[in-house]
Structures are given as C-alpha cells and as structure tokens.
Amino acid sequence: MNHEVIVACDFSSAEETLQFLDLFRDEKPFVKIGMELYYSNGPEIVRQIKARGHKIFLDLKLHDIPNTVYRTMRNLARLDVDMVNVHAAGSSEMMRAARRALDEQGSQAILLAVTQLTSTTEEAMQQELWIDHPMADTVRHYAAVSQGAGCHGVVCSPLEVTDVVHECGAGFVTVTPGVRFAEGDKGDQKRVTTPAGARKLGSHYIVMGRPITTAADPVAAYRRAMEEFQGGMEA
Ligand code: C5P
After folding, report:
1. 108-163: per-residue pLDDT in tens?
2. Alpha carbon of 221 to those of 59, 134, 230: distances in Å?
3. pTM
4. What is the rounded CA–CA span in Å between residue 169 and residue 44?
5. Which CA distances in Å does 78 have to 46, 71, 86, 103?
6. What is the pLDDT of residues 175-230, one digit of tens each?
7. Could you read off the pLDDT of 47-70 as tens digits, one per residue?
8. What is the 148 CA–ligand 1 centroid distance (Å)?
C-alpha cells in the first residue's frame, strides 16, 4: 500500500473542481469525489477526473437495502474507480451485496465500510444512535463485521486505526479522514490528528479536504501533507 494523501474535492461545480486540479502540474493527487460533487455533476465528473489520470475514491457512503445497494454498486463499478464505500451500519448482508456487485463487474476497486463518521462524538453515538459502547469498541466491531462481509477496509478516525489493525490485521485497509495540520482549524471534525500522527498510528491513506482546498497555496499544503504523512515527521 502506498500511504497516499487523498484530497477531498468537496466542491459543487465541475469548473471549480477542475480549476483546483489544474493547480497541480507536477503531481496527480488521489482525488475523493463525495456527495456534493457527484450529486451536482453526476458520473461525468468522475470520467473527467479519471481521464486526467487521477486515482479516484468515490465516497458516496451507500446505505440502503441490499438489493438497492447491489444494483447501485453495479452502476458505480462501471465507472472503474479505485475506491468505493458503504456504511457498515447497513449491516453485513448489504455489504456482501456491494462486494458481489463489484466482483460480478470484474472491478478491482477497494471496498471500504464507514464505521462511525469522524464528526460523530462518542457522546452523540451513545445518546442519539443508542450505541451503548465506547467509540473504540464500536469501530473495532464494525470493522470485524465489515471484513467478514467482504470489505477490503474501513473508513475510521486515525485514533481508531490501532484497534482496527489489532482486530482485522495489518492488511486490512484503513482510510482516515479527520486529519488536520498541527496549527489548523478542526471545523466540524471531532476525532482528529495530524498527517504525521496518522502515519504513526498506522493509517494507510489519509483524506484531507479543507486544509488543502481552502489553503492559500493548495499545492504547498498537499506537498506538506504528503511529506508529513509519508515521512511520518511533525512539521
Ligand atoms: O474537509 P475535511 O478534511 O474535513 O474533509 C473530510 C472528508 O472526509 C469529507 O469529504 C467527508 O465527507 C469525508 N469523511 C469524513 N468522515 C468519514 C467519512 C468521510 O469526514 N467517516
């Protein structure tokens, strides 16, 4: 695994996204396309970014009945992206349906399960979702269920990677949002660490959006994130 920084392109328009990617002349960041961009531009934006040579994580977090997820994932598989995801909360039958759809289409995409959103606090999880366990145990359990259902890895906070590796082994992919530069603004993220911290904790890939997309110099911010993450050194 490459230990790459995945840039969350959370823009609404294709123009804004492509203008942002135009800034990168010497590198081709791994791009995450989420709901905001996909729902406003559809599959065409995936094709456009792919045609420019970027690897793509299509972050649509599917969560529905197994048949709907199966049929949707079959469509997404045809876009030939590198990573896709579902919510582990959809349970194992749904995750198995997603995996079956990918396999039937001959897709090599990494299938990830979202454990708990990195914006969710333990308190909100317990009091609103009524999950009466500590966050770390919940994420570890969701990871085990996801692995049993055929997912290749999970999306979790860097702070939970150690638990996930302990439960599922080092080959199970961990993709971690909730990453901020040491002096950065956390925004709505709650369970956060730095790129170097994420590396030390064992993340395979980190997802960074606003710290790069809203930086005065996004290319410099991306390079710094890559350096800190790949070198594991504090800035
Ligand atoms: O801007 P920021 O770095 O917070 O962006 C994080 C990205 O990761 C967002 O696109 C968000 O949707 C996504 N994400 C997350 N937590 C998860 C799964 C995905 O923050 N558990």
Report:
1. 999 999 999 988 999 999 999 999 999 999 999 999 999 999 999 999 999 999 99
2. 22, 34, 14
3. 0.93
4. 36
5. 11, 11, 17, 11
6. 999 999 998 777 777 778 999 999 999 999 999 999 999 999 999 999 999 999 99
7. 999 999 999 999 999 999 999 999
8. 25
Taking the C-alpha atoms of residue 201 and residue 149, their distance in angstroms, rounded to an integer, is 25
pLDDT value at position 64?
98
Closest by alpha carbon to 158, among 229, 72, 66, 61?
Answer: 229
- Residues labelled as active-site residues: 61
Cα 202 to averaged position of ligand 1 atoms, centre (Å): 18
Decide if 30 contacts 52 (C-beta within 8 A). no
**CA-closest candidate to residue 11, choices 50, 43, 45:** 45
Tokens of 84: 């896709």
Any alpha helices (H) in 90-209, and if so which ranges?
Answer: 92-104, 122-127, 135-148, 161-168, 195-201
Domains and their CATH numbers in the chain: 4-231 (3.20.20.70)
Question: What is the arithmetic mean of pLDDT over 12-30?
Answer: 97
Is the shortest distance between the CB of 83 and ligand 1 below 6 Å? no
Segment 5-33 shows an average pLDDT of 97
Atom nearest to 180 CA in ligand 1: 3
Distance 27 CA to ligand 1 centre (A): 22
Dihedral angle over CA of 98, 100, 101, 105, nearest 10: 140
Residue linked to tokens 């406003």: 40
CA–CA distance, 193 with 189 (Å, rounded to integer): 10
